[in-house]
């Protein structure tokens, strides 16, 4: 078991995913507090891993998450630089790290929601499309207002609605019963500066795919959205595509 300590941060133990998440949180707090201001170079990985009491693997996962959020950038041969301060004070990196790896959640969504969109495209009705567009408009407005809590709730409802349209009750129930985890995975990408409206554009493409009645197009739009949302949250996983 590994621990994360230093600069008045309490020790944390748990799974590898939890350690990586806590490591990212500590480094993020250092950036927020000005310990490492924008433009500064972080200590070497060896120094950071020793200081935090974590393995190089956990540290690299944490830095990958922070890079995905746009907070740091790795420059080959030079090190890792702070590129911007977190926009939202105290925002957690992934608060379900003790029970669910963020990568696992996105992979589940990729498989489950991609197929749900495929099924939904074959049976979707005009009223379903109207409701999805209404959701899209409301979510877009909340994103423009910087209200990511309500935006992520609407984001979750959009995906749940598609699962319900598909007619597969088991898939819809999985999403509904995992609502907190799923919604958190939909909230994180909004903190990637310069890409906040990407979700709106991707949801619009999903609606277009569903409306076309072409199963391949709907599934492609959904899986592309989930891959790109994962990347905005700092998660990259192979799909074989």
UniProtKB/TrEMBL annotation:
One of its GO terms (molecular function) is DNA binding. Residues 17-85 form the HTH gntR-type domain. Coiled coil: none annotated. It holds the Pfam family FCD. SMART domains: FCD (SM00895), HTH_GNTR (SM00345). It comes from the Bacteria. Keywords: DNA-binding, Transcription, Transcription regulation. The keyword Plastid does not apply. InterPro entries: GntR_C, TF_FadR/GntR_C, Tscrpt_reg_HTH_GntR, WH-like_DNA-bd_sf, WH_DNA-bd_sf. This is FadR family transcriptional regulator.
